[in-house]
Amino acid sequence: MAPKTDFPPIRACLFDNDGLLMDSEDIYSLATNIILDEFGKPELPWSIKAQLQGRPGPEAWSAFQGWAQLPIGAEEFDKKNVALQMKLFTRTKLLPGVMDLLTTLTKKTTPTVHIALATSSRTVTFNIKTNHLQEAFSMFPKDRRVLGDDPRIPKGKGKPAPDIYLIALQTINDGLASEGKEPPIKPEECLVFEDSVPGIESGRRAGMRVVWVPHPGLYSVYQDREKEVLAGYGVDYSPEEGKEAVEAAQDDIAGKEKRTGVKVKGAPGSVDDGWGQYLPNLVDFPYELYGIRVNERL
Predict the structure, then answer these.
(1) φ and ψ of 276, to 5 deg
(2) How far is residue 183's CA from residue 176's CA, in Å, rounded to a whole number?
(3) Residue 211: strand, helix, or coil
């Protein structure tokens, strides 16, 4: 498939938080490693951590404990882990390029690009992580923040399901409707910023363009599967299995669309379809690539 190039200009940017805007992924690792060290275990490698992201709690614990072999159960581990996280989260820092990107999008774009937040963090932990970073997070209007405990997210429909990003877009469109100055923003006019593989799948399944900015440790695990990740696949596959999974899913989707004559909603994309891009960080973001006009005089 030839990559799509005739995209409409981006009108909305939707952001994950942990590991994308701030260094909290390193703090999650630090808290885990403190507990591992307490029991004489080695630090958690990214090859294992990558397998835990996006999994339900019991499944993630089973995979983690299968590697760690700790002499404590999930409940005691969680108690220790949460206590450490609550202390460490007050130290979070913005990642490189974040402040400039948010400032440019909200204050220097013509027409203005709207932003919203879509994070799996629950309200309590989100506030602890961000209270000391309000110069950045105040740029997200409170009614355009969708957190992990938002009642609008159906049970069991967190990332990699598309719901959280579709809800984030709806918060923007609700505001536009009340102002009556702009038409509603379509999913293909949105750009999702994510660091995680399940998050990229979520954005792709929402019908949006994506930018993948993974932690270097995570990228080292998935770099051979970059194309599959950007298509919305590849979480649990080897490079060859990932390609086969994409092809099988695409065949199934194409068959269903042919049978019904209706485009399948919530489906991932295709390899090299032009909807996704990998970036090592958010420094010097390529606005022009997404049709975003920046007025440096503002």
Answers:
(1) -130, 150
(2) 7
(3) strand
Question: What is residue 296's predicted lDDT score, i.e. its pLDDT?
Answer: 78
pLDDT > 70: percent of the chain: 88
pLDDT digits (tens, 9 = 90+) for 261-274: 544 467 889 999 99
Q: At 283, phi and psi to the nearest 5?
A: -75, 135
Q: At a CB cut-off of 8 Å and minimum separation 6, what does 178 contact?
A: none
Q: Is 16 an annotated catalytic residue? A: yes
Alpha carbon distances (Å) from 7 to 67, 169, 187, 191, 279: 44, 18, 11, 11, 19
Residue 246 confidence (pLDDT): 47
Annotated active-site residue in 6, 18, 37, 174: 18
* Interior/surface letters 105-133, b for 16+ CB within 10 angstroms, e for the rest: bbebbeeebbbbbbbbbeeebbebbbeeb
Q: Which amino acid is at 217?
A: G
Out of 6, 16, 224, 236, pick the active-site residue. 16
Mean pLDDT on 123-147:
97
